[in-house]
Write a structure and sequence with these properties.
Number of helices: 10
Number of strands: 6
Shape: globular
Strand order of the largest sheet: 3-2-1-4-5-6
Strand content: 5-15%
Structural class: alpha/beta
Largest sheet: 6 strands, parallel
Length: about 230
């Protein structure tokens, strides 16, 4: 692995979520993040983004790559130690990135909620990634985090207040839309495109399976019995 690699690269930086991620990174002291870059399909848009959000910063690299081109994603993965992939829908834009990361020893993280695609990536790449000690981290954003945190809070509260552990946690989500919020504030372009892709391809088997990503069938069966997914 070359020392010239970026420590991490934010791919999809010009999108809604990419800009939010970039905005957060820019709040950190520059000397704490290492050497990093933003990436996307259009150099002009990436340059304009940095000029607008980080004027005067010349320490942030710019990499150009089209997720639909295997060679471009190969070149991108070869230049970074970690790829943060924020350009969905992943069923359309993610395959080349995963394959390239595994090939070049690059760690990978995204925020997809497209579980059938994740299941396919696990099936196709888990063994190779494990052998190379490469971390492929899916669903690292809103799709999972609130529910994980609520479950952790329930477990800790039961221990602190009652001195017992939880055998089961039921999470009920109720979302209130703040006054003045429009559709553009609630759905990013990537989310809309993912919804369109799902409508185009139709529902995939296992969408409501809580053990969709569990390879051991006995363990998967126990999870389905213990933690069924109920959509109301």
């Amino acid at each position: 692995m070359s020392d010239e690699r970026y420590d991490f690269t934010l791919f999809g930086a010009t999108g809604f979520t990419g800009q939010e991620a970039l905005r957060h990174l820019l709040t950190k002291p520059a000397d704490t993040l290492g050497r990093w870059a933003i990436a996307g399909r259009d150099r002009a848009r990436l340059t304009a983004l940095l000029e607008r959000m980080a004027p005067g910063r010349d320490d942030i690299g710019i990499l150009v790559a089209d997720s639909s081109a295997a060679s471009a994603m190969d070149a991108l993965a070869a230049q970074t130690r970690v790829l943060i992939h924020l350009a969905g829908p992943y069923a359309r834009h993610g395959d080349h990135a995963i394959r390239a990361c595994v090939a070049h020893g690059t760690h990978y993280i995204d925020l997809t909620g497209e579980i059938p695609w994740v299941r396919r990536m696990v099936r196709d790449h888990h063994e190779s990634a494990a052998q190379k000690k490469i971390k492929l981290v899916f669903t690292a954003g809103y799709e999972a985090l609130p529910f994980d945190l609520l479950t952790l809070l329930a477990v800790r509260t039961m221990r602190e207040r009652h001195g017992v552990d939880c055998r089961r946690v039921d999470v009920v989500a109720d979302t209130e839309v703040p006054e003045g919020t429009g559709a553009g504030d609630m759905l990013s372009g990537g989310t809309v495109n993912t919804m369109r892709e799902s409508l185009r391809t139709g529902p995939e088997e296992g969408m409501d399976d809580p053990a969709a990503l569990i390879g051991d069938e006995a363990e998967a069966r126990a999870i389905r019995e213990r933690s069924p997914v109920e959509v109301t």
